[in-house]
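Appendix C: a fully annotated inverse folding record. The material below is reproduced so that readers can follow the format used throughout the book. The structure is listed first as tokens, followed by the designed sequence.
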């Protein structure tokens, strides 16, 4: 079985006590790579430490998360840009718009998102998009900057059929599917029938969103297995085929 965990915060303090075991379990489960999205300036040293410790296995992205866009957004953004100038990254992420938690900085979130979309073109990198209650707004920003020059993933997709179709209308964009697909109250398995695996990559969003049977517990990359199993049930193919197709999608998108 091959899997790439395309979105995981395993550099966070939840993993301080057993990160080596977490990585060993991921390798044993067939996880080939773990991609690490940044959050903001405060997460930089943890992100780089983990990426350095598991070089070529845990691969960092760089970006400013929308929930970290506040009064000091300009200096946050400047520091994040500085990182891009000095190191190499697999993607710009995670970036986007989040109107679920707080709408105070909605305009700033949009500006910061579009600015980072422009960076992705400048550096030739894909983007990992965080969108919460803001799919239409995110798509508008992508269209403002230039959808034909951008490529990326809408991570942690859990939306409606209409939202799915609006994302898929952007040719170079995929859906990141995680443990939410295994939740009993999720309509995602029905929604996903409107597309096929060619537009899907697998992720955890660890430490959040653990799949059933670990729902509510800390998530980790080896649990991508449960996401793969659910996808194989939805599309009526084997786990191995799901692993093969989604891994190839991830390799292509992230130039792995
Ligand atoms: Zn994330």
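Designed amino acids, in order:
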């Amino acid at each position: 079985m091959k899997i790439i965990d395309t979105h995981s915060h395993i550099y966070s303090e939840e993993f301080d006590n057993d990160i080596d075991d977490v990585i060993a379990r991921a390798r044993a489960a067939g996880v080939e790579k773990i991609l690490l999205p940044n959050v903001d300036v405060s997460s930089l040293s943890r992100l780089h430490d983990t990426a350095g410790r598991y070089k070529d296995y845990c691969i960092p992205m760089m970006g400013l998360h929308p929930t970290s866009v506040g009064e000091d957004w300009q200096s946050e953004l400047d520091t994040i840009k500085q990182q891009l100038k000095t190191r190499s990254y697999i993607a710009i992420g995670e970036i986007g718009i989040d109107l679920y938690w707080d709408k105070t900085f909605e305009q700033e979130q949009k500006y910061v998102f579009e600015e980072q979309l422009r960076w992705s073109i400048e550096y030739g990198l894909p983007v990992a998009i965080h969108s919460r209650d803001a799919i239409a707004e995110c798509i508008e920003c992508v269209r403002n900057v230039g959808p034909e020059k951008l490529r990326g993933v809408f991570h942690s997709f859990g939306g409606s059929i209409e939202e799915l179709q609006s994302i898929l209308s952007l040719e170079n964009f995929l859906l990141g599917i995680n443990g939410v697909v295994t939740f009993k109250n999720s309509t995602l398995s029905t929604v996903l029938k409107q597309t096929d695996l060619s537009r899907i990559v697998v992720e955890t969003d660890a430490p959040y969103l653990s799949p059933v049977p670990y729902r509510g517990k800390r998530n980790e990359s080896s649990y991508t297995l449960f996401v793969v199993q659910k996808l194989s049930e939805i599309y009526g193919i084997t786990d191995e085929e799901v692993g093969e197709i989604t891994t190839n999608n991830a390799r292509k998108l992230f130039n792995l």
